[in-house]
Structure formats: structure tokens, C-alpha cells
Hints:
- By secondary structure, this protein is α/β, with parallel strands linked by helices.
- The chain folds into two domains: 250 residues, Alkaline Phosphatase, subunit A (3-Layer(aba) Sandwich); 48 residues, no CATH class.
- The protein contains 13 helices and eight strands.
- It has a six-stranded mixed β-sheet, with helices on both faces. The protein has a two-stranded antiparallel sheet with strand order 2-3.
- Strand 2 and strand 3 form a beta hairpin.
- The radius of gyration is 22 Å and the shape is globular.
- The termini are far apart.
- The N terminus and C terminus are likely disordered.
Amino acid sequence: MAHDRPVFITDRNRYLMKLLIIGIDGATFDLIHPWVDAGYLPNLARLMSNGVYGNLASTLPPVTSPAWPTFMTGCNPGKHGVFDFIQPSGADFNLVNATKIRQPTLWQRLSAAGYRVGVLNVPVTYPPQPINGFMITGILSPKGGQICYPADLIGRYKSNLGEYRVAPNIQYKPGNEAEYIDDIYGLIKAHGNWGLHLMKSEEWDVLMMHFIALDIMMHALWRFMDHSHERYEPTPFEFAIRDGYKLVDEYIGRMLAQLADDASVIVMSDHGFGPLRKMVNLNVFLLEKGLLKLNRKPFTQLKARAFRHGMTPAGFYRVLERIGMQNLAA
């Protein structure tokens, strides 16, 4: 008899204490400690006071795409094979995905041992892997791709929860802060609501729930709350990041309320966060020092000439945005 999914041997008669893992991308104690002390994050405060907490070392580099595979596999990037969001392939660059991870993941090992696993929105999990349980993939999943396992998982619940959202619908640009913040909060709610529903509706022994929205938000809006930032200015958006943390904390509380008293809970991040004050483009530095040579292809020379006149790829995209042609370059 043919099976459309792997068969896992599970002894459902044995007693299993549940484990809930909550990933908060980019979370930092630099923000959590003062906001816990001020009473804004009561559920994180409860976990910290009743359990243990501390700083984790991230990967080298401390970036989302290699850090989560390191958590998944217990191996450093040199062993699991993911170093960045992109992977060079000859003259081209491809986005990394789960097929680039060279070591077995936590959910594969748990599945093989007979445990039932749920994985929600964790980066670098696309395409979804057959596991003993269920999976919805996270960022780096292509639009229109098959993002869940089993294949009908989202279809079973979207009439109640709406279409699943992997990432924001709106990209930040100066002037759209209010709309952007509403969209980010909507993403937190979508992930939280799906997580809560699947906690109740599906069987699981270990569940990994990941919130990506705070990381994306802090990249865009950090300067609005940081009075020491060179680009700080008083705006109505000063507390947007804090309120995003509060919203995630509320969902953590609702998840904890669904657990038995003997369940174990881990809250973790892939890296910390802070202000970006300066950047170094190593290729430009090497070019200026005569340590890098450009090939003579016309397109390469055209790009170099444009760069010398201040036209970067980001600047070119902003020009296209102003004339409504950005989608042609996407």
C-alpha cells in the first residue's frame, strides 16, 4: 500500500510531558529587562522569575538564516552549511532553504524517535519536510509555494483563521510608519492565533512557535525609540516596538494558559539587537585600495560608473518606487 507521507512508529500509550519552544527573532535583554521591570511584559516576567534565563551566544555571523539552523541541528554553520540568506552559485546568488541544511534537524530526530512535533514559522524550513506532526514554514518561503505539511494543513483551518501570513504585507519606507506598524501587529496576531489554534487542534509532544515580526520591526523603527541614535526625532512611533513586545507577551501568556502545569517552556532568540550606526562595504574598500579588479563586461562597467555617481541598487529601487515601476524590478 502506498503512503503519501512517511510512517512513524509512535507509542501513544506512554506518558509524555509537553515541551513548548517559543522563538522571538531578534529579542534582546537590553529591552526585555527594563520593560519587565516596568511591568509591560508580565508573562516573560513570570517565566524569568519561576525559571532560569541568561544570554546565549549567537552564531558567527549572528544572522537569522544561519542561527536557526544551528539551533535546529546543534551544529555550527561550518557543519550545517548555511552562512547567510543567500548562497553563491557560480556567478549567481540563490536564497537558502531547508535543502541546504546538511545535518538532521531537531524535528527529524524527534520524529524518528516517535515524538509528535509541530513547527510554525521557523526560518529556513522551506520546503516543508515530512515529519511526524505538522509544519508551516517561515521566512524565505516563496510566494505561492507549498508552505505546509501535511499539504492540507492550512486549508483545514483558514476558514476560521484566514490565509496564513509568512511575512509582512507592507515594506517600510519613510512616511508609511502608521500603516507599516499596523501591518506588523497584524502579522504578530496572525502567527499567534494560528499557533494557539494548532496547539488545541493538533496532537503534539514538542511544539516550536516562532515570531519573526519584532526583528523586522526593529530593523525599520529602532531609531524612533532610541534617544541616543543620531537619527532620533520625537514622533508618535516612539513606543511602537515596546507595544509589539507587549503583544507577543500577551500571546505567550495565552499559550502558557493552554499548557499543563508539568509542561516545559523555552523562550529563545537567534541573536540580539541594537542600533546600526555605520556600515562598511568591503568590496568598495578593496576596490579603493587596488585589491579588487572588476571584469571588463559592459554591464559591470556600467554598474561601477553608476555607483561612483551615487546610484546604488537601493537608490535605483527608490527611483522606481517614485515612478510606480518598482514591481518591474522585483
